[in-house]
Structure formats: C-alpha cells, structure tokens
Write a structure and sequence with these properties.
By secondary structure, the protein is α/β, with parallel strands linked by helices. It folds into 2 domains: about 240 residues, no CATH class; about 260 residues, Carbon-nitrogen hydrolase (Nitrilase/N-carbamoyl-D-aminoacid amidohydrolase). The protein is about 40% helix and about 15% strand. Strands 1, 2, 3, 4, 5, 6 and 13 form a 7-stranded mixed beta sheet that branches. Strands 7-8-9-10-11-12 form a 6-stranded mixed beta sheet, covered by helices on one side. The N terminus is likely disordered.
C-alpha cells in the first residue's frame, strides 16, 4: 500500500477514497463529517415549490377551485420546517414563484405585442416574494424559535401589504381572494381588510404543514441523506394545544361572519335602481377615431332600451365617450391657450354640443348619468389630460367630474419616462403619452343617495377605495360618506381572459371592507352588482348567448344600501401595516443576529 493512500475498512474497491501526495490525509471521522455536511439535493425543493405553484394557480381563475387555497402553501411550508436548507433552495423557490406568476398573469400580454415585455417583467418582480417570504419565515422559526403558525401568516400578510404599494401597487391574487364564495369567512374584511382572510388561510396552511409526518418530508428528499433516517427530533411540529388554538381562531372568524351577515338590514332604506351598460368594443375599435360616433350611437340606443325600467342612475364604462370634456380656467386667455392648442382644435373643444347632448340624454331618460370620458383641463401652465367620470343630472345637466387618481404604470403613464424614455418598450404607447393623476375623490348626490366613482383598476386597491369611500362633503341616506361605489372599467384589453373574472372577485372584497355596495359598468364585462356582504347579486348577461364576457348587455338592479358600519373604513390598514412592521423588525433582528446567541430548543412545537 502506498504511504499516500488510505483504505477505509469494510468498503469495496470502487468506494476506496485515495489521496495523492499533494493532498492531506483524512481520517474516517473527517470523511463521515464531510458526508454529513452535504445538503439535500435541489430537486426536493423544486418538487415542493412546483406543487405549491400548481395548486395555487388552480385555486384562482380560470380553474377557480377555491378549496385548494387551504393546502396550496403546504408543500412550500415544508421548506420552512426543515432545519437545513437544500441545495440552491432559494433559487428553486424563485423559479417556482416564476412558474406560478407567468401563467397567472398571462392575460397581460393580450393588450398589445409590446405587453409581452411587461408581462415577463411583472412576473419576474412578483416572483421575488416567494423566496423573501421563505427566508423571513425560516429566520423566525429556526433563529428565533417563533412558532410557524404565528410567524408565517404575519409575514405573508405583511408582504401582501407591501405589494399593494411597491411600484404603485398590485393588490391582485391575495391568498384570501381564493375564498370569495365563502361569504361568512370573508366578513372579517370589515375589521382588518381582505388581509385578514389571507391571514386565516395562511394560519391554517401552516397548521396543516406542521401535521405532515417528518418521514414524509424525508421521502420528499428535503433532508440531507444522513438525516433522512432517523428523522431529527428538532423539526418543528404542532401539538394538540396548537391545533385547538388554530381551530378556535378559524371558528371565531367564521362565527363573526355569521353574526355580521345576520345584522344586515338591506331593506332598511329605499334601494336606488341603477343601470349598468356593458359595451363590447375591442381596443382597436375604441382607439379608432372614425368609430367615435358609432360607439356613441350604440351607447345612446342601449340607454334608450333601459329607460322603460325607470332607473335612477345609468352608468357607462370607462372612456367610452370618445370626444373629450374640455374645461379652461377663467383667467387664461385664448392667446395663452393657443400656445398649447391649435385655434381650430380649441374652437371644437369649446363647442357646447357634446356636453349638451349628454345633458339632454340624462333629461330624456329622467335619470342621472355617469359616463367614462377623457377630460382636458387648461390653464396658464398648459393642458392636463385626465381619465374621468362625468356626472350629469336630469335637472341640472353637467354637475362635475372625478379624475382617476391611481394610474396604471405603462398603461396610463410611463414611470421615469423623462429620464428613461426607452421604458416605452413596456407600453403600447409612445414615450410622450400619458394622463395626469387626479387629486381627490369626488362624490355625486342624486335623490339623497351619494355615489362615488372609481375607474379601471382602482377598485382592486384597498387603500384607494377606502379613500374614495371616505369622500368628504356630506353624508348619504345611510349616514356614511358614500352609499354606493361605482366602477367604470375597460377590460377590453384582455380579450375575455380570466382577468375579467379575477377583477370582479377582487372588487367584491372592497364591498365587504367598507360595507358599501358596488355597481360595475365594464366594457366587454363583467358588469355586476355586489352587495355589502361581497355577494355578487347580478351580472350583465347576453340573453341569447347567456354569456357575461365579450358581449353587449344591460343590467338593471335595485341596489341594497347597507346600514352597517365598518371598522376598516374608520381605522384603515392597521392590521396589515403591523404585519409589515413585524417583517421589518424581523429583518433588523436578523441583521443583528450575529451578536445574539441562537436559542436552543430541540423538538420545539409550533404553538
């Protein structure tokens, strides 16, 4: 035997490790320790997060299989239970997040060929929340020994709340949205917002993940080979007390929902009759100036068809009126306006004909009219363009407008467009396009009922809708600032995809949060009436095809006003904000953790 070669006892020649003259000699113990130091392979993490991605996708539209929302995160949470991370675990989790978001957001590409870039960019961004969530959860569980059933729902909700603000916000596909049909469960939204529903579902997911036997985790190859058997006892589990606590929280939330629904008195006030007109105008047609008159005639005829049902209010979709509403400051002269607007165009804009015909339509219908229209506001500084909702009274004519506050990036404005015009590749519009943001919400009153409009995706952003619902300036018949929310939307960009369904689902949570019904008038659909319980009472349906998407349809409904008050309306996002603050404290504690001794608590339970 060579002096530089060592043979381990009871090994075959194929298993005999050798050392050259230039390599140090290793003992048997060192070789065993080196083998034990090897992490589990990456494929186990890929399988776990891949299963989570598939189940999560299936729990939302288009499959919309809501029960999967309770278990979809269980495989993902197994990665939080294991003491030692697998190989490239966070890379696997990010790839799994990307595998979920790419098919989920595929409807973004339908608007225009340039939107493929935006689709990929958005998916790349939101996929980061998966590894961030796992990293914070593992830090809490394994570094600070916080029970999984406490830290995970807090972290998940905190990151959902962050996603509502970062990059102007994206409040879609919250975990709680999977349960929109379970009305008793989602009533907790009037206390803590839709984030509370996500918290409960995440809590139960964590409890289920802790019930998975450790030997199953070993079979999934999430443990290093030396730890696969026997299974290490220090892996977090859940005890009987933990099961009882989680079940009690769940039952309390559902019990609260039954109580709050029983307290509703939808017949306590006269229900305004509201009509929503649903057009079916493809985007390419809508932006064709030659089609403006044809679109208006269609809206005029559909409005006439509704009149026999005697609605109190008629709502048209977003920007379906293709001529602009022009207003100029009284202190600006024509010479100053001509710097920004050609004289012949200014003459046309100032013509009262367009506004007068809408006022006449409201008078003939004997109903108030809210229409989606582009508004131009001129002063000495120039001309600003707004995406607006204009209100017409049957007695007074034009009575004001609301300008959209929450703009869609790359769809309505180009972030940092002045400094980085190349970002226009993410948008179907040129670099100099865009609308200006409105400053404040605005409510309209008709026959004692106060209506507050929102435009496009505004109804999906919790804090924006809350601001709209708190519109100052008076109280409606229910004693709240706003009695009915109106959403004017153009979903024609998305070609009848699952976006239309998910948009409606997301809007339903705003009604529960604020205890305020909503009427949606949507180009291509889905126009609907939602009550203060979040129940979708009616949809606009074509009588021939029985479809609610990509059809012209009319919806007339007596909208039940809600007598209940909302703690969320009064207090806002204190709960979700606290969860995000807890995430921030966890990050700080983790950064300081190198000077804090790690707690030792083998075999700790989740609760």
């Amino acid at each position: 035997m060579s002096p530089h070669t060592m043979t381990l006892p009871q090994t075959s020649p194929q298993q005999t490790p050798t050392r050259t003259a230039h390599e140090p000699d290793l003992s048997t113990r060192e070789l065993i320790d080196a083998a034990r130091a090897q992490p589990a392979p990456m494929r186990g993490a890929l399988a776990a997060v891949g299963l989570t991605s598939l189940l999560t996708w299936a729990s939302f539209t288009p499959l919309n299989f809501s029960p999967l929302g309770w278990i979809c995160l269980v495989p993902f949470l197994l990665l939080a239970r294991i003491e030692r991370p697998t190989r490239r675990m966070y890379l696997a989790v990010y790839l799994g997040g990307l595998a979920y978001w790419l098919p989920t957001l595929q409807w973004m590409r339908l608007g225009d060929a340039t939107m493929y870039t935006a689709w990929f960019a958005m998916s790349l961004y939101v996929a980061f929340y998966f590894p961030v969530c796992l990293g914070l959860t593992r830090l809490a569980v394994h570094r600070f020994r916080v029970p999984l059933t406490i830290c995970f729902p807090v972290i998940w909700v905190g990151l959902e709340f962050a996603r509502a603000y970062i990059m102007t916000g994206f409040s879609w596909y919250y975990l709680g949205h999977t349960q929109y049909r379970w009305l008793e469960l989602i009533q907790i939204s009037d206390v803590v917002g839709a984030y509370g529903v996500s918290f409960v579902v995440a809590l139960m997911s964590a409890a289920l993940a802790l019930l998975v036997p450790p030997r199953w985790i070993a079979k999934l190859q999430l443990l290093p080979p030396n730890e696969a058997w026997p299974v290490p006892r220090q892996m977090p589990t859940i005890g009987f007390r933990g099961v009882i606590i989680c079940a009690a929280i769940f039952c309390a939330v559902v019990g609260y929902g039954y109580w709050r629904r029983s307290a509703a008195n939808f017949n306590g006030y006269p229900a305004p009759r509201i009509a929503a007109i649903q057009t079916n105008v493809p985007t390419r047609v809508k932006h064709d100036s030659q089609q403006a008159e044809s679109i208006y005639r269609s809206l005029h005829m559909m409005t006439g068809a509704i009149v026999p049902q005697q609605p109190d209010l008629i709502v048209w979709p977003e920007t379906m009126v293709r001529f602009p509403l022009f207003e100029a400051s009284l202190d600006v002269s024509d010479e100053e306006l001509h710097k920004h607007i050609p004289p012949n165009v200014l003459t046309s804009l100032r013509s009262p004909h367009n506004v007068q015909q809408l006022s006449n339509l409201a008078k003939m219908s004997n109903a108030a009219l809210v229409v989606g229209i582009e508004a131009l506001s001129a002063d000495r500084n120039g001309v600003r363009t707004y995406n607006s909702a204009a209100f017409f009274s049957p007695k007074k004519g034009y009575a004001g407008r609301y300008d959209k506050m929450h703009r869609v990036p790359f769809g309505e404005y180009l972030p940092m467009g002045d400094s980085m015009p190349w970002l226009s590749v993410f948008s179907p519009y040129p670099a100099d396009f865009g609308i200006d943001p409105g400053n404040t919400p605005h409510a309209f009153e008709h026959q004692g009922v106060r209506y507050a409009p929102m435009i496009c995706f505004e109804d999906s952003v919790p804090h924006v809708v809350r601001e709209v619902a708190r519109t100052p300036g008076g109280q409606g018949v229910t004693g709240k600032p706003v009695d009915v929310l109106l959403n004017l939307t153009n979903d024609g960009w998305f070609d009848g995809s699952s976006e239309l369904d998910q948009h409606l689902i997301t809007a339903a949570f705003r009604c529960v949060e604020l205890r305020t019904p909503m009427v949606r008038s949507v180009n291509t659909g889905i126009s609907a009436v939602i009550d203060g319980d979040g129940a979708i009472r009616a949809r606009a349906i074509d009588p021939q095809t029985k479809q609610s998407k990509q059809v012209e349809a009319l919806l007339v409904e007596d909208v039940p006003l809600d007598n209940r008050r909302s703690l969320y309306l009064a207090g806002g996002d204190w709960f979700a904000g606290s969860c995000l603050s807890a995430c921030g404290l966890l990050v700080v504690a983790g950064l300081l953790g190198r000077w804090i001794p790690k707690r030792s608590d083998p075999g700790h339970n989740a609760v």
